[in-house]
Design a protein that fits this description.
Layout (H helix, E strand, L loop, with lengths): L1 E5 L6 H14 L4 E5 L4 H11 L5 H24 L4 E5 L2 H11 L6 H8 L5 E6 L2 H11 L6 H13 L7 E4 L4 H16 L20 E2 L2
Parallel strand pairs: 1-3, 1-4, 2-3, 4-5
Antiparallel strand pairs: 5-6
Helix pairs in contact: 1-8, 3-4, 4-5, 4-7, 6-7
Length: 213
């Protein structure tokens, strides 16, 4: 089973991915976590340190190259793996960033999204930009502007691919988010939960899980 996680910065993608991996391993399942970063955080930190801000097109060019390499390598590894594969971010994330920057979608990334093996589930972690901003500030490893998070929040919804995503409320305690992830995976597999079990199965509530619209 291949699952992709998307969402704005501060939505908890990395935390959710690690929680899914830990829970799957605890349940005795084979699982692989693959991270498809674009180097945006590192470039942002370096830019702030040296006072250099790349033009949007140049920043997108670098990020697209890094993310595409990571995604292609991730699919190569996933193809050889028998078990649950969780991808933290994908090419959809770069398309959303292009939307925010006012750049065209282009043809290359949409082509790759159509051509690469389709995930069994693309989960969008939906969180209020204000809560996401508070999380980014609290972790203190990078910086984001609330306005940018609000724009990215809207940009995801404008993606042509978004209606096929499964949107999950990502606010509140991580244990609640994990339960919603578990519910979404159960629905996607059309059968009893078996990929992993959350710490407290009684907390699984499929109600918050919905198709994006």
């Amino acid at each position: 089973m291949l699952i992709v996680l998307t969402g704005i910065d501060g939505s908890g993608k990395t935390t959710a991915a690690q929680a899914m991996i830990d829970a799957a391993r605890h349940a005795g399942n084979k699982v692989l976590l693959l991270r498809n970063h674009a180097g945006r955080r590192r470039m942002s930190l370096l830019g702030a340190k040296f006072g250099v801000h790349l033009p949007p097109r140049l920043a997108d060019l670098i990020e697209t190259a890094v993310r595409t390499f990571n995604v292609l390598n991730a699919h190569r590894r996933a193809r050889r793996f028998q078990g649950l594969v969780v991808m933290d971010r994908h090419l959809h994330c770069q398309l959303a960033l292009r939307q925010v920057r006012g750049l065209p979608r282009g043809r290359w990334l949409p082509f790759l999204i159509r051509t690469l093996p389709q995930p069994d589930l693309v989960i969008h972690l939906d969180v209020d930009p204000c809560e996401a901003y508070a999380r980014v500030v609290a972790r203190g490893t990078d910086s984001e502007q609330l306005e940018d998070l609000e724009s990215l929040h809207e940009a995801y919804r404008l993606l042509p691919e978004f209606p096929r995503f499964t949107s999950i409320p990502a606010g509140g305690p991580p244990a609640d988010v994990l339960s919603r992830l578990h519910a979404a995976m159960t629905v996607a597999s059309h059968g009893p939960a078996g990929v992993f079990s959350p710490t407290d199965p009684a907390r699984v509530d499929p109600a918050p899980v919905s198709r994006a619209n």
